[in-house]
Amino acid sequence: MSIPYNLLGTDRLETELKVADEFWDFIGGKGAYSDLLDVFEKIGIELRPEIDAYFARYNKL
Fold it and tell me: Cys-Cys crosslink for 23: which of 9, 12, 18, 31, Cβ 3.0 to 4.6 Å?
């Protein structure tokens, strides 16, 4: 989420508040949000054993 800070107090949030796909597509171009989700999914699948092993240490508490 991105919310700009305006010291002068001009309220134009309807044109300045960007969340999720609107934010990432604004930053990276059309389709950036979808690409980002795809990357996180692929990395999550690849690193799943390592992630599970890391959090398994805390399940013993």
Answer: 18
